[in-house]
From TrEMBL:
It comes from Moraxella caprae. This is Phage anti-repressor protein. InterPro entries: AntA/B_antirep. Pfam families: AntA. Residues 20-88 form the AntA/AntB antirepressor domain.
Amino acid sequence: MELIPVTNRLIGNRQIPTANARELHAFLQVKSKFAEWINRRINEYKFIENQDFISFSENSEKLQNGRPTKDYFISLNMAKELAMVERTDKGRQARQYFIDCERQLHELTIAHQTKAVSKNANWHLTQLINTLKTTVHNQQKAMDKIVSLHEQSLQLQALSLELLQRQALAKKSYRQAVLYDVDCVFDLVEQGYTNAQISEKLGLSTYAISRIKNHRYSLDNDTGRLSYH
């Protein structure tokens, strides 16, 4: 379910997935006005324009005191942090939503890259085979093409290995994010925080925190998700 639309925008020199800050503000049901809220959060957490977000003025009929409204597109990292610091159920829901969006985008990117490499490889192999058929009468030329095909095969194997490594890295990054939350739980316990206080800070349920504290959890190596027992 799409809670808040995620679209690619140019921030700095990169196209990255972003969310509309005004739509996030509405979803979080923040009591203060949008302009007050976003400016306070930017100053409080030192977010940087053209790195964490971009802003623009809406020149439509949406006017405030005769002036165009100002909107913001924010990175998913900034969106997760803004959601977390609200310390509400809506905030926790939004933070988990953005984490899931990041995971899905990682998987989609790898799938597209795999498909593109496979399509390109198949085209090259077809071309090489057709060329070999037309030069079969000349043994030396045929051997040259076979060598070329072998080299292409080695390159494809290398590309396949690289894609597998990138998939493993994406899974590792997600697992590291989960393990970071686990480490944070133990750090906050050592600092004397209660389960309720830790829940507010990390957006985890008190049930999950209790299981983590008592080492009654396990990490799925394939998905990177925690299960409690």
